[in-house]
Amino acid sequence: MEPIPDHLKEGLDMIFVGFNPSIRSAEIGHHYANPNNRFWKILYEAGLTPRKYHTTEDHLLLELGYGLTNIVPRPTKAADEITKEEYTKGKQQLREKIQQFKPKIVCFVGKGVYQEYSEKKDVNWGKQEQSVVNGTIDFVVPSSSGLVRMKIDAIVEIYRDLLSLLATIKAQKK
């Protein structure tokens, strides 16, 4: 299966980084396409989008200042199918994307994604003390997968913290 395209450009407020595309995402060519994935619902409920977007509208996030990418481009049924070599290559490619596009915030959708990227074992939700790439802020939110056992309200609250951080950054730039 083919990887799905990133949605990235320079000067974004934020890039969302997932593990890798699901099989469903690869089949239709759009991010967070698995019907059990709550990404689009969470973004809307947290106030990050003005409405609930459909997965086929993933490219429209660029208009809001948000980008989408993954640490590993190869689609799989589950993240445990990703090889160590793919993570090693993906980490380097992600670092290069962040350096090239210079987003204000890099939001990792799942602790595991950030643990793989940063090589840190102990990771908390929210803003990280130190970012991997200077000049950006690393922020960790729960995975939007339907397999995550956290209550949706608790997940949405962490995404609201992301919105609050973004508002603070924008206010400081004025």
UniProtKB/TrEMBL annotation:
GO terms for molecular function: pyrimidine-specific mismatch base pair DNA N-glycosylase activity; uracil DNA N-glycosylase activity. InterPro entries: MUG/TDG, Uracil-DNA_glycosylase-like, Uracil-DNA_glycosylase-like_sf. Residues 6-162 form the Uracil-DNA glycosylase-like domain. GO terms for biological process: base-excision repair, AP site formation. Gene3D superfamilies: Uracil-DNA glycosylase-like domain. Keywords: DNA damage, DNA repair, Hydrolase. It holds the Pfam family UDG. The keyword Acetylation does not apply. This is G/U mismatch-specific DNA glycosylase.
